[in-house]
Amino acid sequence: MIGNKLYNINKELTAAQRKAIAQHCTTSSDKRLAILKNYIQSTPGTLNDLNQFLSDAVESNWPNSSQKEKELKLRRLSSFFVDQIESVLLSTFVDKNSSIKYILLAQALEKSGNLSLINYYYDKAYDSSVIEEDYYYQMIGLKGKIRMSYASQNEKDLSKALRLNEELLKVLRHANNDKVTEYYYNISNIFLEKNSLISNRRDELTQEILEQIELMDYPLNKVSLYVSLAKLNFDNELLHLYFSKAKETLYSVEKRNHDFYDLDRKIRFLELRLEFFSGTNIESLLAMSEDTIEHFKGFSIINNNMLFYRILFCLLSNELEKAAKLLEENQVFFRGEGRILENFLQAVLLEKHDQLKESLKILQQIMYSTNYFIAVFSRLLYIKVQLKRNKENMTRPVVQSTQRFLQQNSGNALGKDAHQFVLKALRSKTFGNKTKTSTSSPTLTVFHEYLLNV
Predict the structure, then answer these.
(1) In Å, what is the CA distance from 14 to each residue of 60, 87, 209, 332, 434?
(2) What's the whole-model pTM score?
(3) Residue whose C-alpha is closest to residue 347's, from 380, 303, 378
């Protein structure tokens, strides 16, 4: 089987990218480009479909070649397609990012010695990076301009280099603060997804972040640090305090740039997710998810994880027609790695309609996913569905393997106690255990409550 890279890159192409590649294929009489255009404009199928397409194309265009030559042409055709697609992707990306384009032009010409032209491109790169609010390319642009000023060796240009160096220092300080906030954002993400790795450092990290907040002069850096504090305190009341401080600081900012809207989106999704795991009721979750989806639509940005929760909440509130419609209308957002989210939602929808065998068929395909939460939720739902079918004998091996799975992933603190509680209840139904269930239960999400309703 060949063409794996081609298959994967084709799956991820947007409609606009496909259009650009198809246009590129019309710029030459090379018959390989005509074949590529045909492939790009067709619906992506399986890897087997791609291999059949390539085999048919080789057979049709080079029928007189030997079998060995055809096999070689098939591999070369796949590699050629990848090269052409990557070339178009890079070209369109550079065209949309002026700072990168001008930096590449300046660097390509540096050995030519035309200082005026090189300086022109670094000027354009810096000006574009300021508009694009990209500090990395501002640094490269400024460094390039300073080098060009050194090269002239006259007092006027050296004076300019001195001024530019002061500007570079400001950019470096800002970039450094961004790196600090990114460090804490990343480590708090790790804490959230794999608590055991750094659980003993929570108090230390909290204190460090509070100290950093006092040192920051850029409000959005403070916002990011408050979000990191919220993640470090996902399991206690400080979660709400730090989200409140993050939003208060964010919405006090008057100049709303790319960084502002990026943080706004992150906060909205993260707050919804953590509210879900904190046991917030379905009515509040529905309102939060609807508000966030509408907000994202205003910026033509939809996050498939946000859509996942929105549709899941509709399912759990028995708004089944609405959930099915949202799934149908938003399939484009569940392509590639997002397909597993769509499959899970389809399984829940089928269970809700009592199409239990169809639901199980999907769950069997995704319950061993590398996506931890989908794997856990799918296993627990599988057990629930089999119990509804009175197939206790089918649930026993899954109950046992799920117990082992949770033990192996005990460092994933988010929802851990709820997973164990639900599994214990389902295990009791499976094995007919008459042991009295504890009257106290951990915080259960609306999905865990749904699982218990067998």
Answers:
(1) 29, 15, 39, 9, 55
(2) 0.73
(3) 378
